[in-house]
Write a structure and sequence with these properties.
Elements: H1 3-22, E1 33-38, E2 52-53, E3 61-64, H2 67-74, E4 80-81, E5 84-91, E6 96-102, E7 105-107, E8 123-125, H3 145-153, H4 161-186
Parallel strand pairs: 1-6, 5-8
Antiparallel strand pairs: 1-3, 2-7, 4-7, 5-6
Length: 187
């Protein structure tokens, strides 16, 4: 995929991810974005011979300030990852953090990229990480961009302060329910 075509797809996916993500979150998402890129998020054991992989990308996470930087990182010899999942991940007053989770297989043939049939190839527009305790239509707050970046680097889910409290309460409630069930089984 040529750099300009990839850049056009990235800009379209960025816009779509912001619109889609806004449906789920309380934060007002800014169009001024930065990107958190997680490379090589696929299992590439059974790849085709014409698919390029970069083992040095294993575990690599980059925070990039512009779409041009993303193109520089992900377009290699007119090849790009076969799929890239994009979603809102963090938010501050003036910036939105978008997460790009990238396949480790690189290819130049657009027809072999995921999401080709819906025209967003190689980008799949995904929801932000949904909180398990929320009702389907209930919105939640994203963590700050700095906290989201820290959580990604530590390989944990980013939660806002209130989410962490809810998570602890859910865990406590579940533990109490489990202990009550165990007592009932003993009797």
């Amino acid at each position: 995929m040529r750099r300009q075509a990839f850049h056009n797809q990235l800009m379209s996916a960025t816009f779509q991810a912001l619109i889609f993500g806004q449906k789920f979150v309380k934060n007002t998402l800014s169009a001024d974005v930065i990107y958190l890129v997680r490379l090589n998020q696929s299992c590439d054991d059974s790849r085709s011979d014409d698919e390029m992989v970069y083992p040095e990308d294993d575990g690599r996470i980059e925070v990039l300030n512009s779409s041009i930087d993303v193109v520089e990182l992900l377009c290699r010899n007119e090849e790009c990852p076969q799929w890239i999942d994009i979603s809102v991940f963090g938010s501050d007053k003036h910036k939105t953090l978008l997460k790009l989770e990238c396949c480790g297989r690189f290819h130049s043939d657009e027809n072999r990229m995921y999401y080709f049939s819906n025209g967003t190839h190689p980008f799949g527009i995904k929801s932000p990480y949904l909180r398990p305790w929320l009702k389907p239509s209930q919105k939640f707050s994203l963590p700050s961009t700095i906290n989201a970046i820290k959580s990604a680097r530590n390989n944990v889910h980013p939660y806002s302060f209130m989410d962490k409290i809810r998570l602890k309460l859910c865990g406590l409630k579940n533990r109490i329910e489990c202990e009550s069930e165990e007592r009932m089984n003993i009797l």
